[in-house]
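Hello everyone,

My group is preparing for a crystallization screen and wants a predicted model to guide construct design. The compound we'll soak is pyridoxal-5'-phosphate. Before spending weeks at the bench, it would help to have a computed complex in hand. I've included the protein sequence and the ligand's SMILES below. Output in structure-token form would be ideal because that's what our pipeline reads.
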Amino acid sequence: MSSLAKNYNRRQISFKKGKGSYLYSNKGKRYLDFVQGIAVNSLGHANNYLIKAINNQAKKVWHVSNAFKIPEGEKLAKRLTGKTFADAVIFQNSGAEATEVAIKVARRYFYSIGQKKKNRILCVKNSFHGRTLAAIFASGSKKMTEGFGPKVDGFDHFAFGDHKALIKSITSKTAAIMIEPIMGEGGIKVIPEWCLKELRKICNEKKILLILDEVQSGVGRSGKFLSYEYSKIIPDIVPIAKGIGGGFPIGAVLMTKKVAKHMSPGTHGSTFGGNPLAMSVGNAVMDQIFKKGFLQNVKIKSKFFFKKLNEIQSNYSNVIEEVRGKGLLIGLKLKVDQTKFINKLFENKLLTIKAADNVVRILPPLNVSNKEITIALKIIEKVCKSYN
Ligand SMILES: *Cc1c(COP(=O)(O)O)cnc(C)c1O
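Reply:
Good plan to model first. Here are the tokens for the complex, ready for your pipeline.
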């Protein structure tokens, strides 16, 4: 009997080691891991460069309080602002914490400029921003909030794609619109570039802030460092997390100086956020992702993967309805039951994970090889064939 609480539906398997795109089970079987901790291990398992970085730092200093200067964090923040729209960064330890800080920053901004009533955040119904109390009520999901009342107030919702409802939902109390540029848990729904541009325009007109939750879609996953960059807009606040630590828990909130300047001493804090060990790993991940050609390679791999998946889709349109996503954040919207399909992939030693809307999520490491993609494609095709 496990002493762990039962809040996860775990597959009956555990792993003794990993290397790159592969995981090795305790029973000695090898699996192609296209979950990678849900877009977390951006450089695969047991990456040598990251191992060196964490070992080097572990011998020096693991943790000091944010009451002191942390050069490794200064360095990572400098690099994040250098590569993005942002002027300032706050470090956290997870995605939900990062989205919460994004909300705090938005509210604090309006408070500080004397518009104290502007504190509501407008979100997509059934989106995903994490599992803290505020984040579940931000998601507007009945399933996630059930039994966890009283309701955390301050969030309004509109249905994905319903632009009229979106405009109507903006009131004099709205401080920000918060959306995922690519809805991950929600079923790999990509917000089109024109739509992001429209959103920016609306936010400018209404003088409200645009928060883009890139916790899953960020850090190279889309082929750009942040996925909204394809649209060339400039957001106000962007929480990131999953991929930035390559497997080490890190969250970060990127923001413009306009909003950052109101986060004065004492407005926010975190014991662990931005500690030297985490920051050293984050810097090592950045070293790799911004190596010449790395992101270009993600796009090339993605193009190949999508082309082949679309071929499989057209051959097995009885099984796969649509191939969705961007970069290496890929979803197969199925016509058959997702759990059974994922189990069949698993039996063929390919690990994938479900998302809402009957979607199978495929999340290889960003440094996956064409050979590994080809192996995955063969397994996916074999499983599709089994439905004939
Ligand atoms: C995973 C995720 C989160 C929550 O991250 P945690 O680290 O699990 O707290 C928030 N937003 C999005 C878009 C995510 O995909």
